[in-house]
Specification:
Elements: E1 6-7, E2 16-21, H1 26-33, E3 41-47, E4 53-57, E5 60-64, H2 66-69, E6 73-76, H3 81-84
Antiparallel strand pairs: 1-6, 2-3, 2-6, 3-4, 4-5
C-alpha cells in the first residue's frame, strides 16, 4: 500500500513530516548527502517569501528551494508515543 503524500512546498510551518519520496538524478544525490532520505523525519521550520522551505532534521537546518521542494513528497508524521514522555525511575 502506497502512502499518499503532498509536495514539501505545501507543508505547513511547524508540521512534523516524514519523507516518502525524493526525485531521481542529481537532486537525489544532493539530498542524500544532506541526509534527506525516504523515511526520514523532518520538521518544517519556516516558509520564506521566495518559496524556500527551511526544514530541520535532528539539529541540522536545511534550506530547500521551491523548485526542489515541489519534487519531494512528504506525509504528516504520526506522533510517537514513546517519545512523548520518559519513564519514571
Amino acid at each position: 500500500m502506497k502512502t499518499a503524500g503532498i509536495p514539501l512546498h505545501l507543508a505547513a510551518k511547524g508540521s512534523s513530516l516524514v519523507i516518502i519520496d525524493i526525485p531521481d538524478g542529481k537532486s537525489k544525490a544532493q539530498l542524500i548527502r544532506l541526509g534527506i532520505l525516504k523515511g526520514e523525519l523532518v520538521l518544517c521550520l519556516e516558509k520564506l517569501p521566495g518559496g524556500t522551505i527551511v526544514i530541520q532534521k535532528n539539529r541540522q537546518e536545511i534550506a530547500i528551494g521551491v523548485s526542489l521542494a515541489k519534487t519531494i513528497l512528504v506525509a504528516h508524521a504520526s506522533p510517537d508515543p514513546s517519545r512523548s514522555h520518559r519513564p519514571k525511575k
